[in-house]
Amino acid sequence: MLGPVDTIRWEGGRDGRLSLLEQTRLPAETIYTKIGTVDELVAAIRRLAVRGAPAIGVAAAYGVMVGLRGAEECDPETLRARVREIAGTLAKSRPTAVNLFYGLDRMVARAERELAAGASSPATLDALLDEAHTIAREDAATCDRLGEVGAELLSSGMTVLTHCNAGALATAGRGTALAPVYHATEHGMKIAVYADETRPLLQGARLTAWELARADIDVTLLTDSAAGSALASGVIDAVFVGADRIARNGDVCNKIGTYSVAILARANEIPFYVVAPLSTFDPELRDGSEIPIEQRPAEEVTEGFGPRTAPDGIRVYNPAFDVTPAALVTAIVTEQGLVREPNLTRVEEVLRRGGRI
Ligand code: MRU
């Protein structure tokens, strides 16, 4: 099995270079895009060159370093203001995945701590690079832990259905929803995956199918519309998906189409598991109705990959995410263990254990 993909690269010290595996070009080409400015990173996040909740958070943390290039000369007040301004700009790139704000908040808090303790500007920049590396390392370690915990739900011979891409390409490690599959496979189990193609941008077809095939995992691609048929046919044993934001009551926001899969899983009595790090929970939000849902351009639906497939001028509904009510979730897999039949009390309990509240 090939090792995890290098989704985000930082080369060098505090004046180093950020490059991203250009996910818009997969699976045809494996190329890296160099990010020279904060605006370039905002554009890369918007066009989904880097995507997936944890990966966006890690990329944004390094993005703060991109914006601070040459800031050694700044006085502490100017540096503090610059960090806040860069974080504010990056925070506007995409609205739904809470890991973006988690990563940026940690960078801002680290800068404040260092400067309040009297650190020089160069020392603060070193500390910020250390924070970005730590966020990336923690994400990778958390993915491994999610793999271990989630693999307890698997046994050899099972087939799981997944939606979108919640694998290595969506994190700085081996993924969230796909981590249990990687873990179980490494421990000798045979696990097969059905990957929804995930309209309109085909993260399932372009990314999940690519990374699983590359890892020699038995993967079958299906259209989103075929998910009901697959779930009713008896071929699927469980659904594993990731999340972009989870509210305090356990409502789960993930890629558009996840809610339909959850309903279909429930109707066919198939367990529906969400795999997510605690950094994907938003303790500020009481329930899923408060989660901001990104609306994407109409062209993604009418001419996503070339020729127009809809009439000129047609009105389009293109939300990037939907919310699956907690009542449809069999369990949430976190690095702190399983949250079965999630609700307010159980989510608060795991968040407390993980120090998030
Ligand atoms: O629009 P995307 O590709 O960023 O959406 C990604 C998803 O919905 C993933 O399922 C989610 O971020 C979990 S990634 C570990």
Describe the fold and architecture.
Strand 8 (245-247) and strand 9 form a beta hairpin. It is globular, with a radius of gyration of 20 Å. It is of the alpha/beta class and 357 residues long. The protein folds into 2 domains: 8-144, Four Helix Bundle (Hemerythrin (Met), subunit A), CATH 1.20.120; 146-353, Translation initiation factor eif-2b, domain 2 (Rossmann fold). It has helices at 38-46, 53-67, 76-91, 99-116, 121-151, 179-186, 203-214, 227-233, 258-267, 299-302, 344-353; strands at 8-11, 17-21, 32-35, 159-162, 192-196, 218-222, 238-241, 245-247, 252-255, 272-275, 281-282, 321-324, 331-334, 337-340. 39% of the residues lie in helices and 16% in strands. Bound molecules: 5-S-methyl-1-O-phosphono-5-thio-D-ribulose.
What is the CATH fold-level name of the largest domain? Answer: Rossmann fold
Query: How many separate domains?
Result: 2
Shape: globular
CATH 2nd-level architecture of the largest domain: 3-Layer(aba) Sandwich
- Average pLDDT rating: 97
Secondary structure elements and their pairing?
Elements: E1 8-11, E2 17-21, E3 32-35, H1 38-46, H2 53-67, H3 76-91, H4 99-116, H5 121-151, E4 159-162, H6 179-186, E5 192-196, H7 203-214, E6 218-222, H8 227-233, E7 238-241, E8 245-247, E9 252-255, H9 258-267, E10 272-275, E11 281-282, H10 299-302, E12 321-324, E13 331-334, E14 337-340, H11 344-353
Parallel strand pairs: 4-5, 4-7, 5-6, 7-10, 8-11, 10-13
Antiparallel strand pairs: 1-2, 2-3, 8-9, 9-12, 13-14
Bound molecules: 5-S-methyl-1-O-phosphono-5-thio-D-ribulose.
Residues 48, 51-54, 97, 164, 166, 170-171, 175-176, 203, 242-244, 254-255, 320 line the site of 5-S-methyl-1-O-phosphono-5-thio-D-ribulose.
